[in-house]
Amino acid sequence: MTTWINPKDVPKIKLHTGEEIPCVGMGTFGSDRFSPEQVSAAVAGAIRCGYRMFDCAACYGNEDLIGAVFAGAFQEEVVERKELFIMSKVWNDMHERVEESCDKSIVDLQCDYLDMFFIHWPFPNYHAPGCDGDARNPDSKPFSVEQFVNTYRQMEALVEAGKVRHIGISNMTIPKLEAVLPLLKIAPSACEMEIHPCFQQQALFDYLVAHHIQPIGFMPLGSPQRPERDIFEDDVADLQMPEMQAIAKAHGVHPALIAIKWAYQRGQIPIPFSIHEKEYISNLKCLTENPLTEEEMQIIATLEKNNRLVKGQVFLWEDAKDWHDLWDEAGFIVK
Ligand SMILES: NC(=O)c1ccc[n+]([C@@H]2O[C@H](COP(=O)([O-])OP(=O)(O)OC[C@H]3O[C@@H](n4cnc5c(N)ncnc54)[C@H](OP(=O)(O)O)[C@@H]3O)[C@@H](O)[C@H]2O)c1
Question: What single DSSP character describes residue 284?
């Protein structure tokens, strides 16, 4: 029988709107390795074991099957729509047609409205799902404040129309946020960003918290199954760091659970992915027991290696030098 974790026992965090959401969600990106059938079967199991937050996206290519799972769970009265926090994202080729993208995600996910809708990347540069690492689109352009705000205005209209409850942003930088935040009518509620022990993004994390934007950490386990295009020779495997393994040993658990506990205790919402029941159950359950000590938290804080895994090179524009240009590392927007 599937273990059931009472959703009431899963810690919650308050968004700036006052809404309380679970401190862990389930990712649904199959990483070009897991089929939509495998991912949606995991979502079905996850709902039944107590997950209430799901991180979906149009470009993951599985929203229709996940929607069938949601519909089944509502029909069987496993859960009510209002108990779930369903997130989706507009993909880069739909920045001019945000409402159409939102409508399709709502229909595919069979969910009536989205709890949070993200701008997946802050520019319309498009690459085909599953492309290889050298793929470039000649139409790609550097970030434009005007273009971003145009896309964001369409997100705001969706909130006004009742189709979306919260707006999210993703893969942003401090210089981009500085440029756009004063221009927005409805403040973003959350920002999805890559965070794992060897890539903590402390400055961006602090900036978001100071602006009441909830950080949501993607790839919280260092994404050991990430797509080929995101694997580089110098990458560090977070869960194999001796410090992570030692803390895991002391707790008698897999290092993955230490990364999730650290994420929660630091203040970001981790959204780990797994198709394996034992793993996704333990990823939820670990927040209800045996927290890390202050000393263990401090040890993990020292593991920062600036090891960005999603470099984003497939989104580069013609005159860009390399992937570093996407992340405004010198403190200004690279054009
Ligand atoms: N906004 C964005 O641009 C963006 C970008 C990337 C990802 N995301 C979101 O973030 C989610 C998570 O990222 P991710 O899937 O790349 O990486 P991740 O959650 O860091 O890693 C997932 C992998 O970790 C392993 N794992 C999971 N739980 C485990 C456990 N308890 N014990 C041992 N191993 C475990 C699984 O590998 P095995 O199958 O080998 O067990 C799984 O495939 C995605 O699904 C997606 O929703 C968003």
Answer: H
